Amino acid sequence: MSSPICENGGSSKPVKKNAVLVDGVYLNGPIMDSKAGERFVEEAFPIIMEEAIRKATDVNEKVCEWQPPEELKQCLDLDLREGGEAPQQILKRCKDVIKYSVKTGHPRFFNQLYAGMDHYSLVARFITEAINPSVYTFEVSPTFVMIEEVILKKMIECVGWEGGDGIFSPGGSVSNMYAVNLARYKHCPSIKDEGLSGMPRLVMFTSEECHYSIGKAAAFLGIGTKNVYVVPADERGKMIPEELEKQVQRAVKEGAVPFIVCATAGTTVLGAFDPLEKIADICQKHGLWFHVDASWGGGALMSNKHRHLLNGIQRADSVAWNPHKMLMAGIQCCAFLVKDKTGLFEKCHSSQASYLFQQDKFYDVSYDTGDKSIQCSRRADAFKFWLMWKAVGTRGLEDRVNRALALARYLAEEIKKKEGFRLILEPEYANVCFWYIPPSLRNLPDGPEFWKKLHQVAPVIKERMMKKGSMMVGYQPHRDKVNFFRQIIISPQVSREDMDFVLQEIEALGKDL
Amino acid sequence: MSSPICENGGSSKPVKKNAVLVDGVYLNGPIMDSKAGERFVEEAFPIIMEEAIRKATDVNEKVCEWQPPEELKQCLDLDLREGGEAPQQILKRCKDVIKYSVKTGHPRFFNQLYAGMDHYSLVARFITEAINPSVYTFEVSPTFVMIEEVILKKMIECVGWEGGDGIFSPGGSVSNMYAVNLARYKHCPSIKDEGLSGMPRLVMFTSEECHYSIGKAAAFLGIGTKNVYVVPADERGKMIPEELEKQVQRAVKEGAVPFIVCATAGTTVLGAFDPLEKIADICQKHGLWFHVDASWGGGALMSNKHRHLLNGIQRADSVAWNPHKMLMAGIQCCAFLVKDKTGLFEKCHSSQASYLFQQDKFYDVSYDTGDKSIQCSRRADAFKFWLMWKAVGTRGLEDRVNRALALARYLAEEIKKKEGFRLILEPEYANVCFWYIPPSLRNLPDGPEFWKKLHQVAPVIKERMMKKGSMMVGYQPHRDKVNFFRQIIISPQVSREDMDFVLQEIEALGKDL
């Protein structure tokens, strides 16, 4: 047999005297030994616990074990073969994959808009994987349908709406697509059936600091990237409302049809919040759908201290908010929320498949929520957030957000004090953007040569930190600024000691440059 | 503190004499006790093992513990509160959620196009959850990027192409959307930037038996549901090529622009395979993109005995194939594959975000595959399939497919022999469609009254089986046929004894109707 867990399967030996043979296959008894499978899971668990949970979050371990692509291929033995491998060999594969994976829950992982490890969420995710649900009908996902409903309702409260609707989607990018599609449907329902050909040109608006998914949405939904009118942002990264007004008027003058403004609450690089109240005024004036991409910044809604950053969000028609980012619910956990209570999701997306959404079921089929979605099978991403919330409480989530933002503030102050570091802008949220200027550049005049050399500093420090495995911090050029570090602070496992470490480590890695 | 795992956090007591206070928050040390979190995971594991794995796949346990929506709300205590709950209380919540969830890995779950439990895949999924990767760059997902590449290459070989490209997507529906978008881009690249407004009307073709996601794709991508020309299928559920030819000619005559044919390999209800060779001929003749939705039927590509069902797929331009269905990789695991080797994904979808896809990285950035996607954060769905394949081998996967189809054949033969059962059509794949006719209807003449009464039988039996928790089998009306059962056979944990049980149980539950 190809696998040690398959014991009496396939086209090999019969298992009983009165065996049933069909198409050359014996059909008596299972061909998979579930007990052996369970033993495998039991043997794997201590490895997961030690390597992927304990060590992966231990500050004394490496955050990554760097190997270049070609070398990594060799380390992992990637090839798939005719025959299977013994469980012990598979356990070794598991160890190898864990070893060479980046530990995104490590206290020194500051590289993306997610980080940390919440053990409650993790347990919920293990359960979800074991239960393997698909959230389309109450029939096959009773618990997860109900949990999704409750947590969406709670998130809608946080936004400040009196009711609304929502769905969990596979990413903020898809949530933004939902927003564009619902706005388009609201603007002109016949587009669902007739399509855009022959329709007037639709135009959407967003700032130059928006997430790249807005452009992808325009391309994918047939609107076209050129019909995304990009509104300038101020030096803090916030959309300038007067410029938005100008762009709307420009579109109207051109004979095009404006239909949606996509504002951002928490931009990817700078962590900036667009002025939502003023944008809401403009949307109201022109009758435009007001979408807020709060995928990253939505976390601040949990904090009484910081939710003012999103003042005006209660006037939005739709909101994208990813609890897998600031709230650590685990990738992916992305809510798309709408203020509408008239069943816009169903009207815009439903196709009433008779094999799935039968109307003669014996329970209230309004709980069969799958037809709201553009997906068919859909993961139970609400559960992990719900269990974490149950365990930590609203107050616990708030404490985490407050703490992360206080740490960002602390880091910014340290940067301002420390020689060789220059803060790009005062953080409002959890993005701290700064340059490290090595001693060799400190006396150069502020001219093209200085900036050219500084541009090359962050990539080299990044390479060194990854090869050492000491930490991971992102960098990028942005608008008129050469490469700078962007440190993201999220996890309640980190503290000021980690902030201090980051600056010391960057200095240690880059002082010779 | 709101949560017992948070020990010294938030705005409460300082932990050190030289504490740093920012915005009213002490910043020394973590505010989360990781050790307590690890203990929680360790305590949860035996519960998951016993309740969500062992019992959930034990044929002597119930497949579901039915509660109506309102009662279920009470059972679960869904409310989210200011304060958190103690770990022991959270463990109870976990048990409750498991208890009331449908056990989709149970040997008597025949309700959807997925079923069973593969323990290797499950362990990979636990690891993925602990590592919490997002597959967009080699930098943060080195292992998973490499594994995705290898498994896509292997799947492309199975399709029969000499090379190609692919990506894992969040569902077959999204894969079908990818197909439509790539086909549209290939047909007219300027649509990405210009949009569809002012363009000639684009038309897509699919059969009346296609998955409902084709219509959703047309709506979402701005093409319009009316521009999906629906081709009649024969009585086996296969697209009629001559009718496709007629529809293409109709579109051309109308001045519209045909650009894609979406064929289906393994339809949802009947498990039918469209005649791919003949459809390929028509696509070739008219220069149309040929997409095959093999989300369900793709599993047959693993079987030398059954892959003939997909003869002609090697001529497709793109294929959707979900290993989470027949191959039990766990929801979701959905590959979208294209024959093109000229970087169509990047051209069609890229947006070159400078904060993520920096070009001055220290490694080969061709491994930063995220810009191929319409998503930003993306799950490592390839890994679970890869680990399972490693363990079971190509041969083991083939054995499972052969066995499932042999069991379907066996069940069909039993249905033909058994009084009161009527087979709808001979199965080609793992869908067995049949009516159960209770004794009270057996002597009725074949007229409207008979069919009206028969239509009501399956829903009642379904209600009874769910309330009893003995098994789950789907039913639906389909085209001119009243409600019938659709039994799906996948898992290597089931055997002929389970097939026999299904028929006996339906009879026991419905003989009084």
From TrEMBL, chains A, B:
GO biological process: carboxylic acid metabolic process
One Pfam family named in its UniProt record: Pyridoxal_deC
Cofactors, names only: pyridoxal 5'-phosphate
InterPro entries: PyrdxlP-dep_de-COase, PyrdxlP-dep_Trfase, PyrdxlP-dep_Trfase_major, Pyridoxal-P_BS
Positions bearing N6-(pyridoxal phosphate)lysine: 325
GO molecular-function term, one example from the UniProt record: carboxy-lyase activity
Alphabetical keyword list: Decarboxylase, Lyase, Pyridoxal phosphate
KW Cytoplasm (keyword) present: no
A GO CC annotation given for this chain: cytoplasm
Domain of life the protein comes from: Eukaryota
Keyword Transferase: no
Subunit record text: Homodimer.
Family of this protein: Belongs to the group II decarboxylase family.
Protein name as it appears in the record: Acidic amino acid decarboxylase GADL1-like isoform X1
Originating organism: Acipenser oxyrinchus oxyrinchus
